[in-house]
Structures are given as C-alpha cells and as structure tokens.
User: Fold this.
Amino acid sequence: MKVQQSTQLISPFGGLHFVLKQIKQAGIDNFINEQLGSRGQAKTYSIADGLLSIHYSHLCGGSCIEDINTLGEHIGFHPGLSLPSADTALRIMQELKTEDDIVQNGEVTHQFNQHDKLNDVLQKLAIKTNCIIPAAGDTLDYDNLILENEKSDAAKTYKMSTGYQPAIAAMGRQIVFIEGRGGNTPASYKMDETLKQCFKGLNDNGICIENFRSDSAAYQQSVVEEVEKNCTYFYIRIDDSQSLRDAVKDIPETEWKPAVINNKKVEIADTPFFPFNGKKAYRALIQRRKRKDQQFDIFTQSPYAYYAIMTNNETSIATNLYVTQFYNHRGDSERNFDILNNDFNCNRLPFSFLNANVVYLFSAAISFMLFEWVKQIFFNKGVIENAAMRCKKFLFDFMILPPKWIKTARQWVIKYSQPATVTNL
Assistant:
C-alpha cells in the first residue's frame, strides 16, 4: 500500500457546513447573543460561538468538551465558521453561571441553582425554531434526572451514589426548564416553588400548557394547587396511603374492566378520591394486576398489586383506558434523559461545581433543541429519511460527507462528489 500526502482542504464532516448554513439563515447565533448579551469588543468569540461550538461537537460525535479542539483540527476551512477552543468555550460557560441558593433544613443542607435568563432563552429559542407553538396547548412533563458524578459539591442521592439531581421540564423533545439541585435534595422538596418559577417563565413567553404529568413526587397539596392554576388538566401518580386503600376497597368488583397495558393483562377502574384529608374530590384511575405469588395484601385484602393516577380530567373523551395510556406516554418523555446523557454528554460534566455545570446542562439542552430543529428541516427537504434518528445515526447518514474546498475566481467553493441530495440544501 502506498500513501500520498495532499495539501487539499478536505474535511470529514462536510454535513456541518449545511447545519451552519441553516443556523446562519435563521439567525440563531445573533438571537443567542441578543438574549445573553455581549462579552465585550475585546473578545474574539461571542457567547453564541461558545454554545454553538458545543452543538457542532455533539453532531460530529464529540464525547467530551475537549473534542471541540479535535473538531477544529478536522473541519478545515469555512469562511462563516467561528470555532473557539475548548478552553474558550469553558470560559464562556463560566461567565454565564449564577450563584447557588443554599437552604438549611435542620441538619440537611440543600443546594439549588436557578438560571432565569437561560430558561428564558430555552423557551424563546423553542418558539423561534417553531419547535413549540405557544398558543397550541401542549403537555408538560416534569421529572428529576440523577447525574452521578464525584464533583466537589456532589451529594449522596437516594440511589446511594453521589451526584446532582436537577429538575427538568419538557414538552415532547423540547427541554423548556432546568433547575440545578444537589444530589441529596429529593424531587418533592420545594417542588411547588420550582414549578411556580417554571410556569411563570412559560406564561411570560405565552406558552400555553394544557396537560401536566409527573410522578408521585408531585403528589402534594401545594403542588396540585400550583398546577391547577396554570394547566387545564393534570395527571399525577398517587402515593400509597390509607385513603387510597379505602378508595380501592369501595370499588365494586363489577366496575373493574379488563385491559391490555404495555402487553400485560390488567384491570382498570376509577373512583372519586379525596386526597390530603381535604374536601375536594378528584378522579383516581386505578390499575390492578394479580400478584405472581397469589398472596393477599394485608391492607386491601386482595391478591392484586395496585397502581393509581390522580387527575382532574372528567371529560367524556377521558375514558379510563385513555387516561392510563396517556399517563404512560410520560415514559417517552423520560427518554429525553437517555438522549441528554448519551447524545449530548450530560453524563460527562466538565466543571467541578454545580452552578457552572448547570450552564453546561443548558448548552446541552440548546444543542438537543437545535438538533431536533435541523433534522426536521432536512427531513422536509428529503435529505434524511427519518426525523426521529439519534445523533450517531445522523452522524453516519449526514455529517460524514467529505467535501473539498476549491478556490476559483477569487472565491472559495465547496465541492461534494456525492450524495446528490445535497443539492436540495
């Protein structure tokens, strides 16, 4: 085998030039700088340059922040690309961090990090890219993500590992709210205040929420009251309690109807439910399945395992099966955590402290949003076959497209040998 060296400008990631073209045409870089401000005239790179460099690294298969440097070595020449070093990108994120809020609850110290400005940018960017239609009325899914790490301020989580436990709210594949939390802070702690901040930002940006879904951490009177102020309907898993057991006992056997949920045979029924020792009734959707050991539960006196959802949806369309399946779709939103960790490197936090790592989480969420946006553009143009593909598939199908830069007639021209679909861009 003979090897020849060439001085031609060839990049392995030719697809990046088309991504850059879409970002420039939509003014995403200018929009980010307008929202987050200037770093000063003396700075070579803007805030948008730093955040977008992380996005470009993700699309090209980068697994950590330092891969921005490797990308810079391979991308070659592009007259419109401003790619800072990894150190500069880290400095830009450090400049964006905010101070933590420390709450002392007895002997336990809770750490929070709120970044209203970046949450506002997330929501405004989702509207600008048409990833969210503000007045449409959508579903908000709320959950907490365990980020295991050994950073300087990491704390022990309920899984007995150290790390952080940020709160994340999403509308489909769009992350619209992030709150930094220490690992030892339960999801239920001050959840009503967190949701109050989340809904305030959404309302300020005209984003209408019709449905709210959450796990049993939201089963609190203060949380339910806050959600009812800002949403039409809510769906919250019910904690096991004596009131729930009493409600289960009151359901006649004739009310239980067979159904198949996630390929499992179950029975479902609904009943009025009075939570928090209150006088206000909600609707409890209860699902039961026979225990494998056939043992009778000491409290319910039946051989069933129970699973309950509380909702205020009493409309005719909201049948027992509809509500159960609608709540179960919350699992699709939890897939966002897998995508954030494995496609956008949230499991490889670059900083030693929570406040700076929260900024990195926002950069990953912005990258995730832009990825969904640009995929839809290329899908509509017939360039990619599947708008639901993950980052790795997008890398192999579109990003790895070696072009050659040629200078002709005193201007640079990029030359692709294939595929022919690039002419659509």
About this structure: The radius of gyration is 25 Å. The CA atoms of residues 134 and 389 lie 25 Å apart. The chain is about 35% helix and 20% strand. The mean pLDDT is 88.
